[in-house]
Predict the 3D structure of the following.
Amino acid sequence: MKNVVLISASPKMAEQSLSKYLLEILEGMVNSPSLKKNTIDVRKSISHHTTDEDFTILSQADALVIAFPLYFFCLPGILTRFLEDYLNFMKKHEIQSKPMKVYTIVNCGFPEPGINLEAARVIQSFSHHIHAYFRFAIMIGGGGMLLEAKDAPFLKKTWRNLNDAFAKILQDIQSDTFDDIENICISVKFPRRLYFMMGNHNWKSLAKQNGLKKKDLYFTPYQ
Ligand SMILES: Cc1cc2nc3c(=O)[nH]c(=O)nc-3n(C[C@H](O)[C@H](O)[C@H](O)COP(=O)(O)O)c2cc1C
């Protein structure tokens, strides 16, 4: 029996999170009797003060999947804190990691999936620190669109590619081999100019909802 731990790490509270949604799809695919699954929501873990219980679950994992959105070209702060605290927890309790396989699913707002690479490398470095085996990343571009236009025909191929990528994670978890696997890039097939026009429109309406004007979006408070 292999123990799979799924970590959901979007800081979003009320809004729908793509990272969480993707992890739920993957969780639904973990249905082999040889796999046991546990899900940890990082935001809940920190705010409900249950990190120690969750770190114990994490330390018993054979495979770990970390899903998160790209924030400022890196990990959201809550995830960095959670992983650092886990390292300290391991040291404090003198925990020796199992030979765990690590995967990450990282999505960003820009259309190019490769923008996620540095963040994926941070997870790779974390895996190295806990003596785990980083296997590969699924890097997704155009994340903002995937949920908003979920059922649109032009996204069919992207969702199919995501399902194939998740199947690859499950296959690798169940395999006892450690052959190299390349990171998987997944993008949305959509006209780039239109994508940015829609993005800019969203920023402006968000500003309006928060009582700001368009020019306030260019405010540089730290200069
Ligand atoms: C504070 C913040 C910082 C962000 N930084 C980036 C970034 O550096 N690059 C990028 O492409 N997208 C960035 N985004 C967009 C998110 O990565 C994107 O909206 C993602 O789909 C959110 O995923 P989630 O629904 O799982 O939270 C940022 C979003 C927020 C709120």
Q: What stands out?
A: The longest strand covers residues 133-140.
